[in-house]
Amino acid sequence: MPLTPKQEEQLCELLSAFEQQMLANIDSTVISSCAAINNAALLAGLQISTEHIIDPQYLYAILHQHCFAQLHQGDAQIAHAIADNQNSLVIQLAEK
Fold first, then answer.
1. I want to staple 78 with a disulfide (CB 3.0 to 4.6 A). Which of 18, 57, 72, 86 is the partner?
2. 13 and 36 housed in the same domain
3. DSSP assignment, residue 46?
4. Neighbours of 44 (CB within 10 A)
C-alpha cells in the first residue's frame, strides 16, 4: 500500500532525524578514537612531542574508503559511477 503524502513527510522527517543522529555518532566515534589512539601512543612512548600522531582527518579517510567499498561491493562499474559523483562534488565545492 502506497504512503500518503502526510506519511511520506513523516517518513522523511524520521529519516532525517536518524541520519543526523548517525552522523553525530560517527563524529563522536572518530573524535574519541583519535583521543584513544593518541593516548595509547603516548603511554607506549611512541609520541615524542605533544603533537598528536593521528588526527580526525586520517580516520575520516579510513571511513571514506570503507564506505566506498561498501557502496560498490566489488562492482567496477558502480565504483566508477561513485568516483565520478565524488569528482562532481569536488568541482561544485571548488566553485563556491
1. 72
2. yes
3. -
4. 8
